Amino acid sequence: MSGVVAAALQGSMPGECFTRREPLAKYLACADYISSSALRRFQRHGMTPELATVSQPPPRGASLGDALHAMLLEPDRFEENFVQAAPGTPVARLRGPEELFERAWLSARECEALRAMARGVRECTRPRISGWLEHGAKELSLYWSDAGGGRWKGRPDCFTEEVILELKTASDIRPQRFARARERFGYDLQAALYLEGVERLTGTRPRFLYVVVESVRPHAVWVQEPSPEELARARLSLQAVRARFLAALGAGA
After folding, report:
1. How far apart are CA 185 and CA 178, in angstroms?
2. Of 66, 72, 185, which is closest to residue 124 (Cα–Cα)?
3. How far is the C-alpha of 121 from the C-alpha of 135, rounded, in Å?
4. 3-state secondary structure of 33
5. Is the pTM above the cut of 0.90?
6. pLDDT, tens digit, for every residue of 166-186?
7. CA 122 vs CA 36, 126, 211, 213: distances in Å
8. Using alpha carbons only, how large is the chain's radius of gyration in Å?
9. Can you spell out the DSSP letters for 85-147?
10. Segment (H or E) for 235
């Protein structure tokens, strides 16, 4: 029996829930707990559970979405992982030229876009996004087990007892267009798992908000809150895919 199979089926104390402040790479590499990304790969691509849980490292190349997450939520990671190829950018803290090549390079145009996107999020007044971003737990790894023997994990962008914020970038943030992206990429299944984990941790059920930032000019920001009906459907979908996932794990054990 593989380590992933044993961990996912054995679980731990039912209802156990804890958090860890850790690098993203360590969270991704933790195969003892199953993420929404693994469930979505299993569901969308027909992967075996073992293959779906293989750590997917972040791409080495510069990604505006990843850079925006780092800039807003993990400024230290932004400084460590990105080089801003713009006039006046300080590079004195680099230990040597080799460190430059280990980082993702951002062009002057990308830096300009990033600043505009980050400013739009910080200045968003619908609803209290800036306050939640300032005081919420950001990029905190969350692990829990359930009575059915499953171990699950999530890493919400930002959460409090009141709300979970999930930052997304899109070339078109109009509601109907983003609704298609939510369905295509399984965002609501991720939302359902995050809501379960935060409720298990805090004892309260928060709201869930997508903060969607336009990746092209004028870099508008739009906040979408899934309806109770949408979240109920997402919970049912989550229950179904988890049951199939654990059944497939058991069959392959």
Report:
1. 10
2. 72
3. 15
4. coil
5. no
6. 999 998 889 889 999 999 999
7. 27, 11, 11, 11
8. 19
9. -STT---TT-SSHHHHHTSEEE-HHHHHHHHHHHHHHHT--SSSHHHHHHHSEES-EEEEE-T
10. helix 228-252
- Alpha-carbon distance of 168 to 178, in angstroms, equals 10
Assess whether pLDDT exceeds 80 at residue 89: no
Q: Is the dihedral of CA 95, 98, 104, 109 positive or negative?
A: positive
The token pair that represents 251 in the structure block? 């069959």
With H, G, I as helix, E, B as strand and everything else as coil, classify residue 68.
Answer: helix
For CA atoms 234, 239, 241, 242, give the dihedral sign.
positive
Tell me which residue of 214, 133, 240, 230 sits closest to 182, measured CA to CA.
230
Q: What are phi and psi of 55, to 5 degrees?
A: -55, 130
Tokens 């899109």 — which residue? Answer: 170
Whole-number Å distance between alpha carbons of 181 and 193: 18
Tell me, what DSSP letter sits at residue 226?
Answer: -
Report strand pairing: 82-84 vs 104-106.
parallel
- Separation CA 106–CA 117 (nearest Å): 14
- Biggest CA-to-CA distance, the chain: 58
- Confidence at 96, pLDDT banded by 50, 70, 90: low
Q: Which structure tokens are listed for 53? A: 């849980």
Other beta carbons within 10 Å of 7:
20
List residues bridging with 209 in a β-sheet.
165
* Inter-residue contact 64 to 182 (CB < 8 Å): no
Phi, psi of 108 (to 5 degrees): -60, -40
